[in-house]
Amino acid sequence: MYRRLLRKLNEQKVRKDDEFPIRLSKDLGSMVDSIHNVVGESDDIIQRDFKIGSKVKASLFFVDGLVFDSGIEDRIIRPLIYFAKIDEERTTKQFVDYLLTEVITFIEAKEVPTIDEAILALLSGETLLVIDGVDKLLLFETRQFNQRGIEEPESEVIVRGPRDGFNEVLHTNVMLIRRRLRDPNLTVQFGQLGRRSKTDFAIVYLKGITNQDLVEEVRYRLSCIDLDLLSETGVIEQYIEENVLSPFPQVLRTERPDKTIHALTNGKVIIVVDGTPFILMAPITFSDLLKSTEDNYDRWQISSFIRLLRYFAAFMAVFLPGLYIAMVSYHQGMIPTVFALSIAGTREGVPFPGFVEAFLMELTFELLREAGIRLPRAIGQTIGIVGGLVIGDAAVRAGIVSPVMVIIVAITAIASFAIPAYNVSITFRLLRFGVMVAAAMFGLFGIVIVYILINIHLVGLRSFGSYYTSPFAPYKFEEWLDLMIRGPLVLLKNRPSEPRMLDEKRKDV
């Protein structure tokens, strides 16, 4: 059904600018006018008129600030003016071939068949050459961007591992992948999305491992995206996921090249978009949300302990406040007597029931966390720490909340910080409020009902056709060595069963 809907939407696309394509002409003046009609009166588009070999008129177009200026002057204009020899008997094709092979020294030079394609390349930073008497357009790769350096990612900090991360330039990010994976089967396919932004993107996969049906599915879903502006991979993520109502991410994002390489060798498809350091990988499973690339760099005992700690942290981040509400409101008899008396003593004078108390504290902490993210980094960290301490202490002194509630909220927040992926921790934070409501209404029975509903949803969820809960369900015990624990690397001989791959062995055994 999803594919039929996407196909129907794709067939409804109408590109009005393709209905009346601009024809190429041998007259330089008409070609220049056609280019000006398309780009409008833009002062940053520079036109340079000159004569090739002092005889043939030509015009050069480029966008100021996107090109390598000295390269255009030294390797295009100067050779054409001083070193080109004009033979009147040359045909158009011979003349173009002569210029590209004997005069112009740019490595990347090509002919384009339409003005639309030429204008798109021009606005991307390439240089366009129009020659009088020649019904061909020549493009030269002269792009040069000011870019942020390759730095350590801030959203995925690890103790041990490579410190470089992706930046906002597409070709730089592809280079970082190529530098680590020198396999001739590594395939990179470029495309563009956005009717007006014309944003470049790349699909990257490992031929011979990645299932070709998965590649075609990713390519098809991307081709069905019809929007004016594409500024971030988060937009693509919302368009290509299968269940838009699910709070769980069905595509994983990362800034780390080493994590990307690991995903490629496990049969996933990578989507890299120009203008953002976050790349997408698909398909994913629930276990991918709680894994870190650092797990492969430490000994298996250490990695297994940390991974188990993450699962425990995920459970606490979702259910701990709800368990507190259920115990305090409905099941006091399940609490040890000494501890129950201690809780009752701290709650003496608190005017709110446990649910209101927990909801107010959780909401306040979420506000502090969001404020800390939006403020400048030095101030934001201070606001998050000092604000939490001051507000928590003041709330206890004022008798609004109990000290135990402050401890519960603090532990819950710390547990959510232990989740490797930021968007997954947000999902757990959202589910926490649902668990709190259920606990306030039905106690432990409500928590169990929510837990069952979450599992039913996860079992039915798919990521590009792959089972989201694999290898929990479908049950594959042989893959549990790299699930909640990370077994010794010498025993991890097979790749995961999801997604389905052409080569299931990590190495010959």
UniProtKB/TrEMBL annotation:
It is found in: Cell membrane; Membrane. InterPro entries: Spore_Ger (IPR004995), UPF0353/GerABKA_families (IPR050768). Pfam families: GerA. It is a multi-pass membrane protein. It comes from the Bacteria. Its main location: membrane. The lineage of its organism: Bacteria, Bacillati, Bacillota, Bacilli, Bacillales. It comes from Halalkalibacter okhensis. The chain crosses the membrane at residues 308-330, 400-421, 433-454. This is Spore gernimation protein GerA. Belongs to the GerABKA family. GO terms for cellular component: plasma membrane. GO terms for biological process: spore germination. Keywords: Membrane, Transmembrane, Transmembrane helix.
